[in-house]
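Q: Hi! First time doing this. I have a protein sequence and I read that you can turn it into a structure. Is that right? Here it is:
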Amino acid sequence: MPKEMKCHMVRLKKSSAFEAKNLPMKEKKTFNKLKQQEWEVRRNLIMDAAQRVFASETFNKANMREIAREANISPGSIYNYFENQEELFLAASLRGADRLIKVFSDLVAEDHPSIQTAAVAYIDFISKNYEYLRMVQHSMLYAQFTSQESIDQLVETARKLFEQFDMIIQQYISSGNVRKFSHLFFVALNGILFSYGRFPDRTSDEVLTYMKELASLLGELLEKYQPK
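A: Yes, that's right. Below is the predicted 3D structure, encoded as structure tokens:
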């Protein structure tokens, strides 16, 4: 991080600390809570902007100035929240993945969720978060991370998602390698999304309805699968 940016961050922290120090205890807690909420809102706005940029540009071609312009802030402000571009990309990726995992963990918590229901839920989530899918696609094809820790975190997150798939699919396919079917489930659904997610001569509602029909058909085929 540039030296002047570090100095700016130190000044911000000292200023906030001075303001909080001179407040009564109850007001100090409220002040600190508001500062934390403000920090989280701005951090999420930066991640939103980064997701849009990374969805249209590969990780190696995108840069912090472009992300700052998309977020309507100065480039230096980003470094108050993220050490570098890799950390920002990782945070945005993990945020999207955590939301997706939550969708499926909620499904797993229900009584005997069907593969069809899970397939439609995946299509529904990604359709509303299509930039997240494009960002992940770019990272899988082109990203060159400098930190092994970043790679490990992405791999661990993918493992958690596939575990959710496993728990749904194994209700119907109990023999053999269930993870293989989870991989098939994931790849097939993404194939539907990449093929039809931005279809030019159909309305978004028509496209979404058709993709959900295909996803439901995929789920039905997996539910009826009989190992030889």
